[in-house]
Specification:
Radius of gyration: 23 Å
Largest sheet: 4 strands, antiparallel
Distance between the termini: 79 Å
Structural class: alpha+beta
């Protein structure tokens, strides 16, 4: 009886160790974009523009902490501010202006992450 218990414990231990060693990561993708979410807690993708608006997809990875998100325009100031405690993906529609510079900022504790877009780097995409 001791031999059966010892063998069963040994097999369970091997199976548990094998599962933890072979565990991998699952690719996180932004919905409908096919783009992989980066390891950083802020990912911003330019989706396109029309005559009046610019469209951006923003992925915020909050984890288990409260994070502060803000979209700023160089001339207009703060356009949007929100706090998240869960992961979030949203599409932002921002009014288009000449000479525009947009900053997407995320504060997580003592760290800050940002993405910037200006009419200069968007001009290469034939937006302006």
């Amino acid at each position: 009886m001791k031999t059966i218990k010892s063998t069963a414990i040994a097999i369970m231990t091997i199976l548990l160790l094998n599962n933890s060693v072979s565990a991998g990561t699952i690719k996180n993708q932004l919905p409908d974009s096919g783009k992989e979410i980066t390891a950083e807690p802020l990912a911003v993708s330019f989706l396109g523009a029309d005559a009046d608006y610019l469209y951006f997809q923003v992925a915020v990875t909050a984890g288990n902490q409260k994070v502060a998100f803000e979209v700023r325009d160089k001339e207009e100031g703060s356009l949007y501010t929100n706090y998240y405690s869960k992961d979030n993906v949203k599409i932002y529609k921002i009014e288009r202006r000449e000479g525009q510079q947009l900053d997407f900022n995320l504060k997580t504790g003592k760290q800050q992450f940002s993405w910037s877009f200006s009419d200069k780097n968007m001009a290469s995409l034939n937006i302006f």
